Amino acid sequence: MLVMDNQKNKEQVNHPTHYGGEDNLYEAIKVIDAWDLGFSLGNTVKYISRAGKKDPQKELEDLNKALWYLQHHIETIKKKQY
Question: Is a pLDDT exceeding 70 seen at residue 9?
Fold first, then answer.
């Protein structure tokens, strides 16, 4: 078990600023839980909402990850329908 021994480490795990922070009503995890999005759609929202915020040089990478999770969800639905 990881023990947090200072505030900076805690902020990187619990409500980091690139996820919106603790005081943000629309922090990604809060929206994902409120909308009951599950794993694939939840990750899609997470990567879109933080695209470029954690590292501006990785905005395109974050958006590609969101696209991957969305496509995965679409393919899962298609498999269930056929």
Answer: no
